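Continuing the batch. This is chain 6 of the set; chains 1 through 5 are on the previous pages. Same settings as before, nothing changed between runs. Recording input and output for traceability.
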Amino acid sequence: MKKLMQEQEQNQEQQNQDKQDQEQEEQKNQEQQDQEQQKQQNEEQQDQEQQEQENEKQQEQEEQQQEEQQAKEDKEKNEDEEELNSKPEDIKEMEISEEMAKMILEAMRNNEIQYIQQNKRKPKKPKDNGKPDW
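Output for chain 6:
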């Protein structure tokens, strides 16, 4: 009878030990999952921040290009107006009015802008030959 009770106690102790081991293992697994989730969240956040930085950089470049284009257009317009104002005798020789000359210059400038805008832009990233064009 004592032996049977000892065996039962040993079995109970073994079950308790097994249960504790299982709980510890589950806790370790949970900690690992939590760490992996945290790592994944950190990576996603870093990717998002990097994408935002790239977007900001691209936007700044576009704004700078627009400012440069606007400055160039303004400069050309001023030069054209200065030319018209500085050489009224040349206009008279051509027998066209100042308004007509301004219209011609404006049309030429608009055609130049349209030509520049229609030029195919070169890609920033090299083309991947393994992928189709579309």
